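Consider this pair:
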Amino acid sequence: MTADLPANVRKIVEEIETEIGELPAGLRPEDLIAGEISGGSAGPRGNGAGAGRVEAAVREILVEIGEDPDRQGLLNTPDRVHRMYTELTAGYHVDADRLINNAIFDVDYSEMVVVKDIPFYSLCEHHLLPFFGTAAVAYIPRGRVIGLSKIPRIVEMYARRLQVQERMTQEIATFVQERLQPQGVGVVLEATHLCAVMRGVRKPGTVMTTSAVLGLFRTADRTRAEFFAHLERTPPRP
């Protein structure tokens, strides 16, 4: 339930789920005037569920690496880290039905739809370090299309979780396939992983590319080639 989340996390979840001008679930126009959307009396930490445990763990980490968690610069770091992780993992709380919100339309169109250069930021589940880059999502409709803004929201929903890039790529493709039942889906993610840049091999500039292809994108060579050709084209400038 998003009502149980801290206000800052609820705000992120609502941004992923809803369009501009659309009210979050269960909210009335008068609530906006009353300021209920900002979190009400619960304050910035919401209901406080789990409060203290993450902070205590962060303090232990600071002590373990030889720091003093009580010095001025680190005094509020455990709380900041707690709030940061709840924001970066807000995707776990997104309601997929709310995100789609009936934005699937019957359209007599059966050519490829490509949405690319979608920026995303995620956390590697192995080291809890960020990886970030861009996503491209394509599908061939079977008489149904999805609202344009929903594709970046789908990417955001899966990015704001602890992830590995390979799984995230497959999850996005599977979600589009299950919701739209198109003739095929193609997804490509390109990302830089700080676990390879800041630690380990320490190789700045390394980019990881993953792809997932379903339906015609897997079985038809020409379809797959068309998809990758779209990715190479430079988008028009405004």
Notes: The beta strands are 104-106, 113-124, 130-140, 144-146, 162-163, 184-193, 208-215. The radius of gyration is 21 Å. The CA atoms of residues 197 and 204 lie 5 Å apart. The longest strand covers residues 113-124.
